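Interim report, section 4.2 (structural modelling).
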Amino acid sequence: MPAVTEAALDDSGELAGRILVLDDERNIRRTLRMVLEGEGATVLDADTAERALETLRAGVEGTLEGGPVELLLADVKLPGMSGLELLERLCELGGGTPPLPVILISGHATVSDAVRATRLGAFDFFEKPLARDRVVVGVRNALRHYNAERELRALRARLHGSAELIGESEPMQGLLKQIAKVGPTRARVLIQGESGTGKELVARAMHEASDRAGANFVKVNCAAIPRELIESELFGHERGAFTGATGQKRGLFELADGGTIFLDEIGDMDLNAQAKVLRVLQSGELMRVGGERPIKVDVRVIAATHRNLKELVSAGEFREDLYFRLAVVPITVPPLRDRPGDVALLCRHYIDVACRENGVAGKPIAREATAALEAYRWPGNVRELRNVMERMSILSDAELTLEDVPEDIINATRERAAPDGGEGGLAELLAELERDPPPSGLSLKALRESIERAIIHQRLGEFGWNVSRTAESLGVERTHLHKKMKLLGITRGGV
Ligand SMILES: Nc1ncnc2c1ncn2[C@@H]1O[C@H](COP(=O)(O)OP(=O)(O)OP(=O)(O)O)[C@@H](O)[C@H]1O
Ligand SMILES: [Mg+2]
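Predicted structure of the assembly:
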């Protein structure tokens, strides 16, 4: 046995991973199981590619006991779908690369098979007869690679925030449509919305939807840069421009050349800096502090604020001309309480994220727990939800239950539902009716129907047209709601 193999085995530790062995020969399956289990791995097996695919799919869908498969060891020659064809299918499912490492095994490997396998993204290629150490080392490398990739993805998501905007409610669908429409253009966008609603995610999604995606997305937190430094941060400075300017420095606008600059918390920028930004937007040129010649830049500007910029304009704290330059396309990100239908999806997503980051298997969440979270108004929006889910995922046992929902959330919801606390939605509706009464002469039945229609339509929108969830929130049976919708002529896309 070569020394190098020994060394690789020695630095080992256990093979902690879930491996699916696919071979039509029972003996091979049994041998591989013995070897791999002996090293600490969990082994599943399949005798056809079709069955293997079923197991892999169940793993991804969360219905496979013990969690998803982490490595596939597959024979090339099989009755029915071959190992190579299976690899091809996996590539399609994974959008170009297989979603898990695959090692192919062949008894009479031709060079062209091996080349094709590698092209398709196979991690390794074993030849029969199998050598025990070759198998163990190859499997260990593949599992390490899989784990490293997973960690890298989690780290990236933590650093940049995942650019994936989750939500199927009507307000969210509208937002996604706006992003798809405006993202690819070079229009300036002003994103407004409460704190924690996802303004930064929207900005990144716009950048990623544009042909600038390959260039920089430079985020500037206008509230965090001290007043006296903001000009040199944004536009750079020449050597000796001020005390401390020992060298020449490029500013953030220059760094974003060809890409996007994201001016976050623009409402907190002081008037002096506003005037300088306005000049760059008007001319497309900037001047470094202490510089003598203008520098041309090609930068798309996306700005965001949780403050009401129009009010700041009225108060004389924000330049009106800059406001109009920035808000070519104004976008408002809806608060989470206006789209309770997205709460369950977001909870699921952030439970999975938290479990993955803490290296534990995903946990289910009880229906009553989700219902309590849906009823809450989320003043801190998605950021608050994300933190609550992280805390609940860590503190709960195997399942997140109603007991795990923080007490302040339960109490806040209870207070709101209490009659003397005023039923938010109903009070609003009555006030609206007072302001805008229905035409006189309508029968009571017609009146009731028009109110019912409005409420059901609005609630369906909030729950992304999920009839079961809407029925539950309205306190009626699903079949009853279906009948009502039919009766009132409510269909998706129009009342
Ligand atoms: N629709 C969404 N889907 C998934 N995650 C979201 C969504 N909206 C927000 N988040 C997450 O919530 C957190 C807050 O989002 P983000 O930083 O974009 O909010 P913001 O509106 O910029 O808040 P602030 O005004 O406080 O800066 C982030 O972790 C982000 O990934
Ligand atoms: Mg932000």
